[in-house]
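Colleagues,

For the teaching module next term, I've prepared a clean inverse folding example: a structure given as tokens, and then the sequence designed for it. I'd like students to try predicting residues themselves before seeing the answer, so please don't circulate the second half yet.
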């Protein structure tokens, strides 16, 4: 026996321009029928939260699927899978498409070469899928935008829930961010981690979807923006604080990457705060009480 609930959507061309659209959602459990062999023209994320089964790829290789796990069904790739007939499984699936899928693939959020991905926890992904299911109520005027936004959320949840991801953050990225403002080459950073430069590049690409050089640059420019917005430090001093001895080079790099010069950025975003900004993220659900006369 099995139970199936599903809905399918047909977003308009203008909704496709949002980057991602949801084409369908389903929740199933039990001894489900085998799927395929078949080939699709869009992406599907199948989240298995309980039970076990199997997945057979186009080359005939069969992999065991044990919950919690994710199945990636990608366009043009034949696939064939099913739940164990003795135990069945619980699954939730989302069909989606859009130009942003190429970028998510490049960043490593979608993995066509790894169709079966072990997860550490399926709950966050199922929560995102539940939001899609609730948005599928009849007459919802926000259906396409609401479900499309939830697909973005789902991809982030799945990336964070991968069993090979440290819940406290990737240690390599944490160390790179800590040392980003020091005068170190990529090779120097690799040596600090006991890696070759190639191994460091692979680790950062897998964790952040970019090269170590680009990751370090994003950390440096993020800090530079904070200093420009929150302090009155000269641009040359900001450059030195984030690791650039040549302020002219820093200004050119900042302008090219950010799209505006450091001075112009400060004019637009300047918010000088006595004592500087807090490093503690506030709790938006329980904001502090502002007492009369305290500001």
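(Answer key — instructors only)
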């Amino acid at each position: 026996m099995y139970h199936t609930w599903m809905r399918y959507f047909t977003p308009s061309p203008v909704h496709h321009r949002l980057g991602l659209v949801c084409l369908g959602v389903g929740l199933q459990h039990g001894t489900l029928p085998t799927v395929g062999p078949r080939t699709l023209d869009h992406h599907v994320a199948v989240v298995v939260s309980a039970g076990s089964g199997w997945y057979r790829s186009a080359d005939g290789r069969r992999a065991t699927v044990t919950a919690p796990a994710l199945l990636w069904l990608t366009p043009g790739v034949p696939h064939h899978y099913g739940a164990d007939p003795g135990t069945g499984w619980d699954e939730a699936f989302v069909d989606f498409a859009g130009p942003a899928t190429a970028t998510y693939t490049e960043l490593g959020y979608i993995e066509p070469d790894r169709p079966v991905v072990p997860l550490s926890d399926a709950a966050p992904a199922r929560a995102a899928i539940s939001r899609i299911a609730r948005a599928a109520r009849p007459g919802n005027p926000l259906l396409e935008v609401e479900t499309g936004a939830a697909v973005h959320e789902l991809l982030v949840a799945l990336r964070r829930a991968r069993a090979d991801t440290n819940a406290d953050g990737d240690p390599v990225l944490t160390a790179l961010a800590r040392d980003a403002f020091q005068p170190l080459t990529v090779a120097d950073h690799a040596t600090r981690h006991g890696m070759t430069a190639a191994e460091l590049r692979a680790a950062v690409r897998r964790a952040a979807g970019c090269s170590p050089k680009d990751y370090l640059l994003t950390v440096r420019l993020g800090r530079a923006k904070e200093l420009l917005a929150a302090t009155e430090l000269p641009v040359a001093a900001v450059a030195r604080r984030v690791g650039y001895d040549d302020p002219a080079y820093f200004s050119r790099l900042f302008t090219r990457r950010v799209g505006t010069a450091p001075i112009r950025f400060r004019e637009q975003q300047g918010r000088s705060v006595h004592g500087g900004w807090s490093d503690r993220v506030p709790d938006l659900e329980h904001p502090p009480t502002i007492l009369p006369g305290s500001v």
